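Final report, Chapter 2: Outcomes

The project's central promise was a pipeline that accepts a single protein chain and returns its three-dimensional structure in a standardized token representation, suitable for archiving and comparison. That pipeline is now operational. To close this chapter, we reproduce one record exactly as it appears in the project archive, with the input sequence first and the structure output second.
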Amino acid sequence: MTAATRTAGAPPSGIPVHHVTFWRVLRSEWIKFRTLRSTLWTVAITAVVMVGFALLVASLLGTDDPQMQQGMQEDPGLQAMGMTGTTIVTVGYSFGQLAIAVLAALVVTSEWSTGMVRSTFAAVPHRLPVLWAKLVVIVAATIVLVTAALAVAYVVTRPILEEANLAVDLSEPAQVRALLGCVLYLATVAAFSLAVGTLMRHTAGTIFTLVALFFVLPIIFQIIVTTTDARWTDEVNMRLPSVAGERIISTGTTPDTLLEPWTGYGVLAGYTVVLLVAAAVTIRRRDA
């Protein structure tokens, strides 16, 4: 009698074999994203902030106080973006970007902090599909979230803006570009933050870095620019990630100290691509 032989490593008969595909990885990352505890409150904060600030600024413009109206219309920040209805509808993006950046960072760093990343990489040995799946999930979620928030902001501010002769004009290319640009900018911020989180693998360090890049450095350089005549300060300031990227949301004229809308966004996109490439190299070579 001869003993039956079976090829080494072959699964027992009757047990289905599921190959690792990108779509399976994507589905897994979507489930992890939905079940991440920070997802719900971060999404809620982003929506409330974007809609709330739009309604607040619109209400101030619609006030009967002429001094308040004049102060809002002469606000340098709003004037730099271009005083239009679109400016009001999108005004909350600068605060919403922090919540989106934190959420994108947590998508990566939370796995390293809990050690779950080892199980993920054991299931997906090539690793890169995990990074790309996370990127697709966070960018898609950001696009849906920001689009919905802008739609609600448009609806709730429309009566006030029409009364103030600042209704959103979708026949004006600059305003359409600014609305779409707001979605594009925040989606790119999410991708940027995901890449930083992948490189740093530490929640606190990643959030600190993102806050410094998107909030602290622009303020510091704005102070330097206004207190010195050195041309290099303008050159550096206009190429900071947030200063350059948010130009795509502007509907006003472009001053000499800032980049054109699409050029500015291109700078941010360039930073993001470089960081994603670095993240891809790192995730392949560094131990989990």
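Archive annotation: The chain has one domain: 22-285.
This record, like all others produced under the grant, will remain available to the consortium after the project formally closes.
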